[in-house]
Write a structure and sequence with these properties.
The complex is a heterotrimer.
Chain A lengths: L4 E14 L3 H10 L2 E15 L4 E5 L6 H8 L7 E6 L8 H5 L2 E5 L11 H11 L4 H15 L14 H13 L5 E5 L7 H18 L2 E5 L3 H7 L2 E6 L2 E7 H8 L2 E8 L11 E7 L2 E7 L5 H11 L2 E7 L3 H12 L3
Parallel strand pairs in A: 3-7, 3-8, 5-6, 6-7
Antiparallel strand pairs in A: 1-2, 1-4, 8-9, 10-12, 10-13, 11-12
Helix pairs in contact in A: 5-6, 9-11
Chain B lengths: L1 H23 L5 H25 L8 H22 L5 H7 L1 H6 L5 H7 L7 H18 L5 H27 L1 H4 L3 H15 L8 H10 L7 H8 L12 H25 L7
Chain C lengths: L1 H17 L1 H26 L5 E2 L2 E2 H17 L4 H10 L3 H5 L5 H32 L7 H31 L7 H11 L11 H8 L8 H8 L4 H36 L2
Antiparallel strand pairs in C: 1-2
Classes of the chains: A alpha/beta, B mainly alpha, C mainly alpha.
């Protein structure tokens, strides 16, 4: 199937004015500002198929937001091409944004002093949603996001979790085919996070909405995304299914063994002891060299084992590994 | 075309309703404005009276004529403030992401910018404006004929367009600088001095500047001179200026929307 | 202790210098104001006799330039500071700081005053001098008296601002009354049109209000319209106003502080 989003060699250049410190520096930059160029996004290419949920992650300043803003037509790229649903957002912004829902977790599009429903009514008119579709969408959204308790409350009185649910509903009213979520769970409690994750899964499953998610919360990524794109310093450093990225970056697994009594010889082929604390021993091994069950079998013949557990590397370890190896600038 | 017009009208009226609701949430907040605005403008015209009484007519503009001019300038300011106040805070919208949101919606961005906040509080500016203007009409002997009323409406529309064009162009600067609050203050000062006082007080260079480059002389000065039949005492321009003002307004507005569109291409949104 | 205030002052100065664009446009704004006002006076004087109310065009030009210049230096952000701190509910935590709050706000304003002197007042005087000649004082004595009189003016203005800021403690919803005060000061201080031109009754009433002692007094001394001996008298009145306003502020401040701390904000 055709890609929903197609990005080729995307570059965004910024000019930054360097400020100097101190009184002399201030005076100097008052008269002669120092300007330098810098590529916030530096040659990014990817394509996203309909119905994917993609995690777009990277450290602060990696170029995540800049990329999202170019995809949604807010910023014009310095070079490269973007196609969203086959249209360039720079060439026909209005046509593209009709198909997009965008939520910025740190900024609301709801009117602070008005009831939540008033903002929805405005959006109904802006997107020219016909009454039947609007009512049906609102009913579904109200049901899944549990809006009924606060749809008539002024937004300034909502909790952060309620406000975020309101914002997500606002972004979905016009049935967009692509949903951009920028930090949708930031600052939320466990319940609200769960509600939002369930909602994302739900609309993805029932309506086939493509979701692009940027977040620092790797639990979000782990639970939602079939694929992640990792950026750092304006470049894509990893792109693929979560499992393969974890596997590629952290091929090691760990076996923790607790013995009944101390033993002198702990060595075993295909695994190394990396840590020992009293009767607890940590073995590191590679998935390719030996399977966990083989290792356990080998060890149990040799050692008096009390307890045993296998530690899988998680996405957090993997991502930390990526940032570490690519943040050399 | 018709459906698109309907679409915009429906959104604009919804926004207007929401704007009233939002402003009514804090009714007492109006109080300080309700005191300040009349004090500011009534004292302004009072000081003109003091000067004219102690000295002489300003370049042939006596007090009744000055009052007419002052009132005309102030009314167009007041109406402008009702409909276009968002052009003053474009820097804010750039910084807090409000502008990003406008770009994410399938409507004309400038329309959204302006229509999203109808500032009913601005009607307070119109109160001293209307009072001073009516008083000026009375003492200056303005003839309320149908033709004059028609001309007056055209002049007001043109004047508002000139103001909107000026502030839109200035606001566009915020796309680059992210900050232009002081530019707004500058333009307001300039406008007040050039539209509520006779332009002919100023040296030739400034008169030419405010006639041909930044044509704010057309907001009130030239039309007032035309209405009152005064020798304006400044630059001599041919034809009836009351009809020039809307034309100048439309031209300015088109230029400003070009500047705005150019700015949007270079827009660098703020924040992460 | 004093070091802490100096630090506040210096930080304010530094942050102000970084707003390059603001600085340029603010100079331009004040320049436009100056030009427009002087041209207005030139038109008023045109063809007429040399002096009106014993003031020549040169006198009033000097008066206008100086008036706008000192208005850029007389920074009284305290009214906005107090208003916003109350609105955001930050004032309560500020009360627990180890140094007196009002003194902090004054230190901030003085820092801004220094930066304004450099990047607002100085360029304005330079440009105005290019257009209309250097606005010399009438006499050296006048100039020497002008400086302390300005300090007293600033004290009056600052105390008035702080008092207006206090209003927000009692009637928050009214919005920022500082703007209202500013528009009254602008007229009754003689900063735009000297009160000497006003009708006699207004002049008489104004003698008993603090406003004319903020702008007209030092400027009158500067251009020599107020004689040196009258100048001393006027400065004595300024000092009385400073004392009076200070007492009112101190009383009002301690009452609001008590009220705020009891309510817990």
């Amino acid at each position: 199937m055709d890609a929903v989003i197609e990005v080729n060699d995307l570059v965004k250049e910024y000019i930054i004015v360097k400020k100097e410190s101190g009184l002399r520096g201030s005076l100097k930059s008052l008269l002669f500002p120092k300007k330098t160029k810098f590529n916030g996004v530096n040659g990014i290419s990817f394509s996203i198929a309909p119905g994917e949920i993609v995690g777009y992650i990277g450290p602060n300043g990696a170029g995540k937001s800049t990329t999202i803003k170019m995809l949604t037509g807010i910023l014009h790229p310095t070079a490269g091409s973007i196609k969203v649903c086959g249209i360039s957002p720079q060439a026909d912004r209005k046509a593209v944004v009709r198909k997009l829902g965008v939520v910025f977790g740190q900024r609301t599009q709801l009117y602070w002093d008005l009831r939540l429903g008033e903002s929805f009514e405005l959006l109904r008119r802006i997107y020219q949603i016909n009454q039947a579709e609007y009512e049906q969408n609102l009913a579904i959204l109200t049901d899944v996001l549990k809006l009924q308790d606060f749809i008539n409350t002024p937004v300034r009185q909502l909790s952060l979790g309620q406000r975020m649910r309101g914002d997500i509903a606002a972004a979905m009213l016009h049935s967009p085919s692509v949903l951009f979520l920028d930090e949708p769970t930031i600052g939320l409690d466990a319940d609200a996070k769960l509600a939002i994750r369930n909602f994302i899964k739900e609309i993805n499953r029932t309506r086939g909405v493509t979701v692009i998610l940027t977040t620092h919360d790797l639990d979000d990524v782990e639970q939602l995304c079939s694929r992640i794109i990792v950026v750092n310093n304006g470049k894509i450093v990893e792109d693929g299914p979560i499992e393969s990225i974890i596997h590629k970056l952290t091929p090691h697994r760990m076996l923790v063994v607790e013995l009944q009594k101390p033993c002198a010889d702990l060595s075993t082929p295909n695994a190394i002891v990396i840590k020992q604390e009293g009767l607890k021993i940590w073995y590191q091994f590679e998935k390719e060299a030996i399977s966990a069950s083989e290792l356990i079998a080998a060890l149990s013949q040799k050692l008096p084992i009390q307890d045993i557990s296998v530690k899988e590397p998680n996405v957090e370890d993997a991502i930390r590994e990526v940032y570490k190896t690519t943040s050399s600038v | 075309m018709v459906s698109s017009f309907k679409h915009y009208v429906s959104v604009a009226s919804c926004w207007a309703r929401l704007a009233i609701q939002r402003q009514l949430e804090y009714p007492l907040f109006l109080f300080s404005w309700l005191l300040m605005i009349p004090i500011q403008y009534f004292s302004g015209i009072w000081m003109l009276k003091i000067i004219v009484d102690r000295f002489q007519a300003l370049n042939g503009w006596d007090f009744p004529q000055l009052t007419f001019l002052y009132g005309l300038g102030l009314i167009s300011h007041g109406i402008f403030v009702v409909f276009f106040i968002n052009t003053w805070s474009m820097d804010h919208m750039v910084i807090n992401g409000g502008f990003d949101r406008l770009l994410l919606r399938p409507m004309n961005v400038f329309f959204q910018l302006v229509a999203s906040y109808v500032n009913f509080i601005g009607l307070i500016d119109c109160i001293p404006g209307v009072i001073i203007f009516l008083y000026g009409c009375e003492i200056a002997g303005f003839e309320w004929s149908l033709v004059n009323i028609g001309k007056l409406i055209l002049v007001l529309i043109g004047g508002i367009l000139i103001r909107a064009a000026l502030f839109t162009s200035l606001g566009t600067i915020a796309f680059w600088t992210k900050r232009n609050g002081s530019m707004v203050g500058f333009a307001l000062t300039m406008l007040e001095r050039a539209t509520m006082y006779p332009l002919s007080m100023y040296p030739f260079f400034l008169q030419a500047l405010f006639t041909f480059i930044i044509p704010i002389g057309f907001i009130s000065f030239y039309p007032a001179a035309e209405f009152l039949g005064t020798d304006n005492g400044g630059l001599e321009l041919p034809l009836s200026f009351a009809l020039w003002t809307p034309l100048v307004g439309i031209i300015c507005f088109l230029i400003a929307s070009g500047i705005f569109r150019f700015g949007m291409k270079n827009y660098e949104s703020a924040g992460s | 202790m004093l070091q802490a205030y100096w630090y506040i002052t210096k930080m304010k100065l530094l942050t102000n210098l970084t707003y390059r664009f603001e600085v340029f446009t603010s100079v331009a704004t004040n320049l436009i104001l100056t030009l427009a006002s002087v041209f207005l006076w030139q038109t008023a004087y045109k063809g007429g006799s040399g002096t009106v109310e014993s003031l020549s065009l040169q006198d009033i030009t000097t008066y206008t330039i100086l008036s706008i210049t000192i208005s850029t230096i007389f920074v009284c952000d305290v009214q906005n500071t107090i208003y916003y701190k109350i609105r955001e509910g930050q004032i309560v935590t500020d009360f627990y700081r180890p140094i007196p709050l009002l003194a902090c706000y004054l230190a901030e304003d003085i820092g801004e005053m220094f930066s304004s002197l450099l990047n607002r007042a100085l360029p304005l005087i330079v440009f105005a001098s290019i257009f209309f000649g250097i606005p010399w004082p009438a006499s050296i004595q006048g100039f020497l008296l002008f400086l302390p009189s300005c300090l007293l003016s600033y004290a009056i203005l600052w105390l008035l601002s702080a008092l207006v800021g206090l209003i927000a403690f009692w009637v928050m919803e009214l919005g920022n009354m500082g703007n209202v005060k500013d528009s009254i000061v602008r007229v009754l201080s003689g900063s735009i049109v000297p009160l000497w031109f006003f009708p006699d009754t207004v002049q008489t009433i104004s003698k008993f209000l603090p406003f004319q002692y903020t702008y007209q007094t030092p400027l009158g001394i500067y251009i020599g319209n107020t004689s040196i001996s009258d100048g001393f008298t006027a400065m004595a009145v300024q000092a009385v106003w400073v004392g009076l306003l200070f007492l009112v502020l101190a009383a009002g401040w301690s009452r609001t502080k008590k009220k705020t701390l009891i309510q817990g904000g």
